[in-house]
C-alpha cells in the first residue's frame, strides 16, 4: 500500500524536473525562435495532434483501467496487454499512413515529416501498462533521462530562427526514445501470448467510448492553436501558447498526484471500497486547492516582473493575457482530479464524455465566432469558458452522486491567505526590475507569507495529508 506514496514521490520529482527544465529552455526558445517560430512549432504540432489523437483511440485511460483490474495475475495481465497492444498497433498503422499522405500536401510539409517520429512514438506508447501496474518509477526514470538529453540538445544546438527544424527534431525524438526505453524492460513483467483478433477488437467499442472524450478534449484545447493559425496569424499562436505556459507548468505538477491515484482508485472500485475512494478524493482535492489558489495569486503577483526576462521583450504583449489565464490553475486541476480519480475508476464514461463534448462544442463555436473579430482574445475567452464548463459539470456530477462536499470554510482561508500573499508581494517588489532574482525573491516571499497565513488560520493540510497517505496507502 505504500507503493502509491512512493509513486507520488517519483511522479513529483519528475514533474519538478518538468518545471525546472522549461525555466531554462523557454527563455532560450522564445528568444531564438521568436513569436513566429514558437507559433509555427505549435501550429504544426496542433495539426499533428489530431493524428496522435486517433492512435489507440482511448487507450491512455481505458488501458490503465483494464490493466489495473488484472494486475494480480501474470497470465491475465499478459493476455490483456497483448490484446490492447495489438489493437493499438492496428489502429496506429492506419493513422500513421494517413498522416504521411495528408501532411505531404500541407504547408510546412518538411516539419510534418520530422514530426512523424512523434506519431511513431505514440504508436509504441505503453505507459498505460506501467501506470496500470503502478510502476511509475520506470516511467519517470525513462522520461526523466530523455528530458535531460533533450534539454542538453536544446541548450547546445538551438541558436537562431533557422534552428526551428532542429528543435522539432529534438522534441519528436524525445517522444520516440522515451517509449523505446520502456519496451526494453517489459519482458520481466509479462510473457508473450497469442491472442485472437476477436479478442483484440472486442476492445474497440470500450476504447471508443473513452476516445469520444479524448477527441472532445483535443478539440477545445488544441483547436485554439489551429484556428488562430488559420483565422489569425502564426505570431498569435506564439503569444497564445506562451501565455499558457505558466499555467501548464503548475497543472503538470498537480497532475502527478492524479496520475498516480487513478490505478489505485480503479483497484478500490473493483474491490467495492467506494467510501474509501471518496474519503481519499476529498483530501486530495482540498490539498490541490490549497496549492493552486496561491499559484493563481502567484502568477498575478509575478506576471509583470517575470515576462520580460522569462519570455523576452518580443513577448511583452502577453503581460496582458497571462492574468486572464491565471484562474485556470485552479479550474483545470480540479476537473482533472475528478475525471481521473472518480469518473474513470467508476466507469462513468458517459458523464465524462458529456462534460468534454459540451466544452468542445462551446470552444469551437466561440473560437470560430470571435477569432476573426478579436484575434487572440477570442481564443482566450473560448479557453476560459470551455475549461470552466467542463470542470463545473464534473463537480456537479461528483456532488450529485456521492457524499463529497467542499470545505468552504477551509477554501476561504486559502483564498484570504493567497490575497494577503499577493498584496505583500506587490508592495515588497514594486520597485524591483524584471529579472530572475526578482522572481525568485517574489516566490520566496510569497511562499513564506502564504504558509504563515494558513498556519495562523489553522488551514494547512499538508501534514495531515502525508499522515493519511502513509496510513491508507
TrEMBL record:
<keyword id="KW-0472">Membrane</keyword>
<dbReference type="GO" id="GO:0016020">
    <property type="term" value="C:membrane"/>
</dbReference>
<dbReference type="InterPro" id="IPR002797">
    <property type="entry name" value="Polysacc_synth"/>
</dbReference>
<keyword id="KW-1133">Transmembrane helix</keyword>
<keyword id="KW-0812">Transmembrane</keyword>
<feature type="transmembrane region" description="Helical">
    <location>
        <begin position="207"/>
        <end position="223"/>
    </location>
</feature>
<dbReference type="InterPro" id="IPR052556">
    <property type="entry name" value="PolySynth_Transporter"/>
</dbReference>
<feature type="transmembrane region" description="Helical">
    <location>
        <begin position="111"/>
        <end position="131"/>
    </location>
</feature>
<feature type="transmembrane region" description="Helical">
    <location>
        <begin position="42"/>
        <end position="64"/>
    </location>
</feature>
<feature type="transmembrane region" description="Helical">
    <location>
        <begin position="440"/>
        <end position="463"/>
    </location>
</feature>
<feature type="transmembrane region" description="Helical">
    <location>
        <begin position="138"/>
        <end position="158"/>
    </location>
</feature>
<feature type="transmembrane region" description="Helical">
    <location>
        <begin position="164"/>
        <end position="186"/>
    </location>
</feature>
<feature type="transmembrane region" description="Helical">
    <location>
        <begin position="12"/>
        <end position="30"/>
    </location>
</feature>
<feature type="transmembrane region" description="Helical">
    <location>
        <begin position="284"/>
        <end position="301"/>
    </location>
</feature>
<protein>
    <submittedName>
        <fullName>Membrane protein involved in the export of O-antigen and teichoic acid</fullName>
    </submittedName>
</protein>
<feature type="transmembrane region" description="Helical">
    <location>
        <begin position="376"/>
        <end position="399"/>
    </location>
</feature>
<feature type="transmembrane region" description="Helical">
    <location>
        <begin position="85"/>
        <end position="105"/>
    </location>
</feature>
<feature type="transmembrane region" description="Helical">
    <location>
        <begin position="352"/>
        <end position="370"/>
    </location>
</feature>
<feature type="transmembrane region" description="Helical">
    <location>
        <begin position="411"/>
        <end position="428"/>
    </location>
</feature>
<dbReference type="Pfam" id="PF01943">
    <property type="entry name" value="Polysacc_synt"/>
</dbReference>
<feature type="transmembrane region" description="Helical">
    <location>
        <begin position="321"/>
        <end position="340"/>
    </location>
</feature>
